[in-house]
Structures
1.
Amino acid sequence: MPAEILRMTGIRKEFAGVVALDDVDFRLFPGEVHALMGENGAGKSTLIKVLTGVHGVDAGTVLFAGEPVSFAGPAAAQRGGVSTVYQEVNLCPNLSVAENILLGREPRRFGRIHWSALRRRAVELLARLEVSLDVSAPLGQQSIAVQQLVAIARALDVDARVLVLDEPTSSLDPGEVERLLGVMRSLRAQGMAILFVSHFIDQVLAIADRMTVLRNGKLVGEYTDITARELVAKMIGKDLPVLEGLRGEVRHGEGTLMQASDLGRKGSVAPFSLEISRGSVLGLAGLLGSGRTELARLLFGADHADSGEVRIDDTPVALRSPRVAVSKGIAFCSENRKTEGLIQDLTVRENIILAMQAARGWTRPLSRRRQDEIVARSIELLDIRPADPEARAGDLSGGNQQKVLLARWLITEPKLLILDEPTRGIDVGAKAEIQRLVAELTADGMAVVFISAELEEVLRVSDKVAVLRDRHVVAQLANDSLTPDDIMATIADGGER
Amino acid sequence: MTTLTVSRKRYLPILATLVMLVGAFGFGSARYDGFADSQVVLNLLIDNAFLLVVAAGMTFVILSGGIDLSVGSVVALSTLVSAKLLGHGWPAPVVILVVLVIGASLGLGMGAVIHFFELQPFVVTLAGMFLARGLCYTISVESISITNPFFTYVAQTPISLPGGTHVSIGVVIALVVVAVGVYVLHYTRFGRTVYAVGGSEQSAMLMGLPVGRTKIQIYAVSGFCSALGGLLLAFYTLSGNPLHAIGMELDAIAAVVIGGTVLTGGSGYLLGTVLGVTVLGVIQTLITFDGTLSSWWTRIVIGALLFLFIVLQRLVTRRTR
């Protein structure tokens, strides 16, 4: 076995008295994929940030290629040979694909940027990832999946010896995930050391040579051969809660709440008809870009339909704006919690109160005592951690941010709750909690529209599944003993079975 | 096919400016005798050379997602410093150098404050605007005329062009500034970093680009361009006056926006700014030719155009999203 390229020993990191990492060891060899596993808040992100120099360490050492290092920041780490690709694509959408790959180290001739060489180099780098596209087009025009690959191509251009992939697959559909795993395999074969963080246990088991599990900032252990069930048990510190059998019989609900007929919008979703019943979950399944989010936005009035109508309780409703939708008891949790939902700089309490206050109107402020009551109840109900209403929302882990967002809408007691990718980028434990919560809410009579890229998850929570393909609703299936394969087949044949 | 439409969309705001420029010009030449005379067109450049230089600097700032409100005051300060020092008998080249250094340093200072204290450019450059304007009055409360032979030479020497027309030396300087600006924006790392910062400052930082340094340099460029614009104005008017260039920062911003640069940064072209300045010039010329309209109509038309452009930009960006 070759010498290790990276060894972190006894890493300790505190934030304002809270221990985020406590005596953690981690090592990485060239030519291996090493997965870093753990629940939200286990310390994975902190460990990566310590490695890339975003945070300094309070104790412990980092050896890179045998030398002690302490990078001054991501840029220094990158120059030193440690490149990171983050979950959120951190590139400039206004610039071309080629520039995004090479910005800051463009090939130059006579002191000026050599544009044709730049494009050529970008094409070559992308070819290494088996991607071919028009590198002069603006990055913003590309799908998230392609942007992710562009980010990796950028990371590869430096003489990277360690590639850190922080949740790279959370926005990708199954085909794209396969492609990314393929890219990782070929990079591994070229001798790259890859640190892979993912919440998808099956992906990790499929690709990782070695796994390190963290829990509550402490090292649980390093494993090479482990089953999914054991792995989850290590991560959450107890045996896997029974996710299977979350729902019993298909519920047909208690009467129609919302009825959309021939609702559609040009260039967004082809006209579709749907019925949403009280006390049931409608799942939306389809590949990325199939129109799931667009459909949800129509139901929430965030986009205007240009055909069809919506009836709520058999009364026609013009969903001109989200405001109208909110007044009709519709709530929408956006998939993009960073930019469209949560306000990072406000506290947990302020974030939770936001929608309720908006619904009341600003002239009738909620008293502080009432706010504290409501927030305390939400924090308890959803088990938001840390249980501190005055914590800054942006400091919470992904799963807890999602719960804050959920709490915001739940306290308005909506009749219809639209959840767009509520479990993206959060860990198994939190995922199971959110799924269970959805089941509980519908038991109380709420209608839920549940959107997820993970078919298993859609099937686990939904009573009825609408399948989208290429912006058409191609089938609506009652979820009795449906399997992911059935849905894939439906997507593949476009519902013509 | 898709890339074609995409790039076409990127150029749409500039195309719209061009169409409007041609339209306004066509209207003028149909309506008024002598409007289409080539010297009239060149006068338009002569009268606005200083604005062009200032707007070029402003383009850098706006492309990076910032704003610089101090440019008008820095222009006025530059005219006054020139007039005062020349009055004391300083040689012209030294005066020019001093003025340029003052302008660039003011910009550098504001950029540093914006970067190191993480302050909004709007507030910092607003402070810079008051500061520079106030400094003007400590130098002189009234106009100082310039009699230096070099300045009068530059002011009064026409550069002949074919067809019996001419331009001023100021126009040549302005065009050189634009050419250098285009080169810097499109062929240097600094220029591309300006676009990257405007697209997403956070991303640019995580991509390991020198965001802080670039931001400071951008304001230094703007300060330098303002000082140079001030010199051109001093050539043009042969005077230094604390009342010069009041509200010019807004003209410069208007020219940049009408030229298709998005105010939130990241998208636009310096050549668009040239068109923007020209549109403003054509409107002024139209109103001069009409003769019956008050000069305030220039402002009204500029206001209407600005509205039109920001709406157009919104429509374009919304469709490409």
2.
Amino acid sequence: MKSKFLALCAATAALMVGATAAQSATLDTVKARGKLICGVSLSTPGFAAADDKGRMQGFDADICRSIAAAVLGDGEKVDFVLTNINTRFQALQSGEIDVLSRQTTATFSRETSLGIDFGPTVFYDGQGLLVPKSLGVASAKELTDAAICTLPGTTTSQNLTDFFRSIGGKFELVVFESPDENRAAFYSGRCEAISSDRSDLASIRAVANNPDDYVLLPETISKEPLAPAVRQNDSNWRDIVSWSVYMLMAAEEKGITQANVDEMTKSEDPEIQRMLGGADELGKMLGLDNKWGYNVIKSVGNYAEVFDRNLGEKTKLGMTRGPNTQWNAGGLLYAPPVR
Amino acid sequence: MLFLNDTRFRAVFYQVVAISAVLLAGWVMYRTASANLAKQDIATGFGFLSRQAGIAISETSIAYGPTDTIARAILVGLVNTIKVSFLAALFGTIIGVFVGIGRLSANPLLSRLMLAYVEVLRNVPLLLYLFLWYFLIILVFPPVRQAIQLFPGFFLSNSGLAVPAVEWQSGFGLTLGALAFGAVAALVVRGIGQRRRIASGKANAGWIVALALLVLPVLAVWASGAVSLSWSAPEAGRFRLTGGLQIRPEFVALLVGLMLNLSASVAEIVRAGIQAVSRGQWEAALALGLPRSRTLRLVVLPQALRVIIPPLTNTYLTVFKNSSLAIAIGYPDLVMVSNTIMNQTGQAMETIAIFMGIYLGLSVLISLFMNWYNARVALKTR
């Protein structure tokens, strides 16, 4: 509450005294600073959470690292700023952070009225519901009159309201400001179900005392394309963020990994040569080093490696790729050609 | 400098300079903020208030559905804030008066106990108490499917207390009107009766007439058949109890937290107020043969009230503002509803301006009321 309010005050104050950071080109600011400032979530295992050595781990954190690697040549040159769900956009608008990589759903109204632009979707998610197995519920449609715990996210409570309106049922919405209280209320049985993005629910289930007592309902009640966001009217910076993400996807498609990237620089494939800076000068066109693509893959690996490391079946979250597979394998990941 | 040496001129001059500086600073901030918002392509203005809210609110004291406007949703939050603050102030004051008197008791056990009560409540941040009460409720009581049945129709669980409720089919407004009319009439008659009694020294039937005036209009409305009620008892649904009146744990935890916190402050204020009345007053009353309890009620407390009211105003303002901690435990107060709306529309500046304006306005109203009351009980010097 307090940190949120401070952040809000800072954002408001920055707006009032005329923030200049927002107006100059973000790329120059980042290069001059020598660090990328990236907004991530407070504590969401799998997406952004510090490990026992204090290093930020997670899918969103690795997206930040890939951008830092593209711009500064080193994926570790990132300062992570923990952003609250309510103040994340203000932090971006006011120039406090360079990029927001925080499980944020790209929507029409956010893109048009908040003064921000979204990059490519990094994770195709959808809102789901998690219930205790003992409840004996097989479908979200059976949850009429149930109490459902959520965080005060925009789309979350609205989607639930829309869903229950569409099936003509009622429900009790219990909204918590902090993820910890939200989870505790759900585990204690204050709510029959907890609702959030499916990726987030996997994380909630993973930290329960006994994850097998909980079951994710089959319905996906909304589309939640999670994407990084940047300030509007800085298209060079937006290009850099977009192509850092596309680089991860293209690398998976081309079979380039963190381990074999050095070998791949000798590849005869012209597209791989362009990606890794062996041919043409794509880096210059973005205002970056020509080895930017190499640096991205060298620091975090390709999309599959980032996914498996943080969310995949070997992790506590145990998520399957689902729609987040390459287009040629029936998924939705489709990086435009690098040429 | 002839003018600057003139004290009358200087007094006015400094005021003008100070006010202009404040206005100028405000104007500059407003201009920069609007210009920056426009530059960053962030939507501005209050037009969003009439858009459809699209969110569900679990605790509503006035009719509300997700198809209502955002302005209505904010109003629902405001009513929730006022409801919990008012009840906390009311019960907290009653508890506080007793604790404060208990602090001065000659019985060492009682006075020490009350001292411990006050210190324990005053010296821990309210937010921690809110978490404590809330988690006590949701962890100690069973889930709603295993709700404890206290009496037939009364269920206690970690989803709160469900009790049978009377629902007004019609005639609610009429009854309320009759009750208000009766109360005003009763107060007037009682006032007249008391004045006559003081003037003549004889008992009169004023209070009987007042009582009749309080009850008769309501009875008349009911007898006319304009009122119809229906009975609604909680019933076990598939997941939770439906029907009846549901008192939710978020509301109870917030009410208890605010109420106990306030009662500790009130206790200290009352104790200080009583101690401020000189010993001579006690001795004089006891010399006249009044027992201790009546001395306290008729002689000491009315005088103590003059010392009590000003700090009490502060305490009420605090409880009103502290109700915004509701957000931590999921009670949909003004701030929580505003936050959700802020999140939906992205119009942070406007939404914050609205709820800050509301808090400021209502705090000033509370102060005005308490100042009026203070002036009424203050010592009249003639």
3.
Amino acid sequence: MTREEILGKLRGIMGRTSQAKVDWSRVNEQSSIASLGIDSLAMLDLMYDLQQEFGIEFEPQDVVNVSTVGDLAAFIEGRMGA
Amino acid sequence: MEKRRVVVTGMGMVTPLGLDESSVCARLFGGQGGIRRITSFDPATFKSKNGAEIDPEALAAALTAFELKPSDRATDMALAASGHALKQAGLLPAGPGTPGEDTAVLIGSGSGPSHAVTESWKAYAAQGARGVRPTTVPRCMLNVLSSQVSIRFGLKGPNYVLVAACSSSTMALGIGYRMILHGYARRVLCGGSDSMFTAPLYTGWDNLGVMSRSPDPDKACRPFDAGRDGFVLGEGAGAVVLESLEEARSRGARIRAEIHGYGETSDATHITRPSVEGQAAAMTAALRSAQMAPGDIDFVNAHGTATKANDVCEAEAIRGVFGSEADRVFVVSSKSFFGHLLGAAGIVETLSAILCLEAGRLHANLNLDQPDPMCNVRLVGRESQAIPLRTCMKNSFGFGGGNAVMILGQYKE
């Protein structure tokens, strides 16, 4: 799966969990996750959805340093390649 | 510690009569109840087929206005009602350094996030362990109702949920009142929210034999009527902002009502059967708290469920406490309009009472065709009634034997 394909899936998953009105077509690797209406409850949902969607397993503490969409895409890419 | 006067400066509601005050007022004083055949699921196989449901599209629109997405019905309703109350009180946005930030959140609920619980059962039954999301835990914890209100609106006072069946939100009001009265909080958002309209949960109520089996939704809920045959289940939420009179004045807030006193007791007898003694003791405690006598009360907004057991018991308790004053004091039940909102009943009926106090008009007791002679109190009839009103006693009694009684009134300088 390419980085762009991962980003496309991320936009869809985050769009379903976000509480905010966001133009998801403009969301890119530099976008801060905190700015996308993902609160603490939505973040828990997002972590679960990512594991289901990408067929990977991780713990919440594995993503504590993830702050941008690009960070998250890179993390997923790494886990899928592992 | 110095006692303060406690006033209401914001009101929000999500009810079967509507989500805005003007709609609720029009229907309340126009005699249009909110009970219909249940639509949340097919009620064909149930003995009781009517309910007082909210308009889900109106709730979705209210959530969107606060930039929220649907989660669990009771949680969503608590959020929408709280948002409306905070907005009316002039406390939004409640960011750092604003008056709204220093607000406690007390939400009463009998069953909490019951739709989320039902969804988790369904997911496990359908898909096993992989179907159950980790967010089942924070979505299904009872205090999700108050914690989500705190988080969404940035309210940093204490937040918790009070659980006492059908007395829950009156108890939330009572505890919030005491927190302001004795200076433990600057401002308290008190509310209630409950919904049991999922087929598995409704089944228990249906089998309990306490709900009306009338085929006619307009005639099903008949508090204090000789032909009553049980309550009609409803869903909804309400919220008020309580603060001290000094605090409200300093902000220039519009004052909607004043809370004068609160009393609570337990029957300590039976898990579902009410007790005259327990109810009367709570009414007496509320009057004592308000430093009032029966002669100071203009009307009782009754618990008035329309079950055989409650209405006779409550009328006897009112007669016992009020004595000859019971010939003068009007008694009205809001449940013929809203249905029985369980843990949210107390707060929504308190809002109804405040609307009556403001309007100088009591809403009707719908379907009171033939008052039960066993209910020896002065009942409002089938039409709303204009009358000077200053003070109200609000009764709430719950399964488990918890009794909560609030005394409130018009605000006067």
